[in-house]
Amino acid sequence: MSNRLGMTLLLSALGAATLHAQAPVQAVADAMIAYSGGKYAPPKCSADKGKHFLVSSAATYLKSAIEARDVEKRNTILGKAQDNAAQAITQNGQDKSASAWYFLGRVQLTRGDVAGADSSLARAQKFGPDCEAEITQLRRVAFAPLANAAMKQADAKDVAGAIAALRLAQAFFPASAFAPYNLGVLFSGEGQFDSAAAYFGKAAATSLPDSTEARTRASALFNQGVVLMNAKRTGEAVPVLERYVREHPSDIEAKKALAQAYRATSQDEKARALDAETGVSTAAGPVLNEGLAKALDLYKAKNYAEAAPLLEAIAAAEPTNVTALGALSNSYLALKDGPKLAAAAARLSEVEPLNRDALMLLREGYRMQKDSPKANAVSERILTLPASVSVTALNLAATSARLVATATGVEALDLKTGKPLPPRAVTLVFELTDKAGRAIATQEVSVPALAAGQKQEFTVEGKGEGILAYRYKVK
Question: Which of 134, 153, 169, 257 could form a disulfide with 158 if both were Cys (CB 3.0 to 4.6 A apart)?
């Protein structure tokens, strides 16, 4: 199993099967004998005090079994030990005796009966809380073969069997992070992110002090945040990843994950602060504007009546979206709606004041309304343009943009004499904007004096997150 899932989960789906589990009886029994080293050691807690005679007899049988070399003989003796301890509990009033339950549980473990031992040892700890440390150690010894058996099933790609075995191991020894952590890995590999997050959370909440357990808890905490994000529960992922970063401030990958979680919950300032620490931007690049794509499909199909309201909504939310404004203006032209054409073309010419086509659309909107003064004023603007500017490309990235445009010289006229004006240079101030029209980057461009028909290409480049559009003005 991987110690960390990372932002991409490592386990592939391994298939589903009916849950089944059978404790590795002999492996647990062997582990208990190996732990004793072939020599019986009595408990140091209250379980060894005030024992009923049947419990004392069970302890004696347990000692003989541990020290017996013949396996068959050992099993026979263990059977007698269990009978004595059980009789003390069921027939001799020892049902609240820590010693009776302790020895019953220890005998059961030595016989490989995990489920029985789990119940007996829980009662022993309840009636003899000072025995907790020794009982925990017994559970830890028996847990190892349970965990090993589960891992063998996982390696054999028996996911259902591994899950069942790990659940058994977790139930028997919940103090360890190992079982819930690996359950989290298995469930995440199956795409069951909600279950994975729950098990990673359980693993992160354990508290055994050794270093291996501490590393597993740390990985569990990180992975819990990741799978919560995969489950689209980003709001829950944020505090989990925040805690991990607080506890592991040098983990760059975790900071990237947290920054992504911040962005997904509209906490962009916090994300940018983390990006500054890591030196890597987690800003997402531009994505397809599905609403605009739908509107343009209608527009290209000449379904202007249905395209127009969609384009209006986009232009309202994205005031510098030249594509939407251009299609909207031409839709109203086709629909012969002068007032709406004038309003849309006016917004377009505000974004691109040297766009000759936009100005001609604006003039047409006024003409349709028979508003001669406004139409004549626009004509004067067209006649005195120093150049016509057309943006030919806008290349967008997550934290930058590059605009390419062409200025074409036009023959400007003196409005008083009607004679041609000499070409003149202009300075344009470009703003690269976000979706809402806020300026992210600004650059001035000097356009030289261009004779009629002469072309000059120029570029505008800017850095910043969220650039989607542009506007410019004549300085």
Answer: 153
Alpha helices in 68-204 (DSSP H): 71-91, 98-110, 114-127, 132-155, 159-172, 178-189, 193-204
- pLDDT tens per residue across span 418-437: 888 999 999 999 999 999 99
Cα distances from 105 to residues 62, 121, 125, in angstroms, run: 11, 5, 11
pLDDT band at 23 (very low <50, low <70, confident <90, very high): low
Cα distance between residue 271 and residue 259, in whole Å: 4
Q: How far apart are CA 41 and CA 111, in angstroms?
A: 17
Q: What angle do CA 211, 216, 218 make, to 5 degrees?
A: 95
Copy the structure tokens of residue 130: 């000072």
Instruction: Work out the pLDDT band at 4, boundaries 50, 70, 90.
Output: low
Token pair of 467 as six digits: 């650039």
For residue 451, which of 404, 416, 410 has the smallest C-alpha distance?
410
CA-to-CA separations, 234 to 16, 188, 263, in angstroms, rounded: 27, 16, 10
Percentage of residues in the chain having pLDDT higher than 90: 84
CA–CA gap between residue 285 and residue 273 (Å, rounded): 18
CA end-to-end distance (rounded Å), the chain: 63
The CA distance from 344 to 308, in Å, is 10
- Round to whole Å and give the CA distance between 412 and 380: 10
* Per-residue model confidence as pLDDT tens digits over 41-94: 999 999 999 999 999 999 999 999 999 989 899 999 999 999 999 999 999 999
Rounded to 10 degrees, the C-alpha dihedral 312/317/322/327 comes to -20
Contacts (Cβ under 8 Å, ≥6 apart) of 216: 3, 177, 178, 181, 203
d(CA 160, CA 304): 57
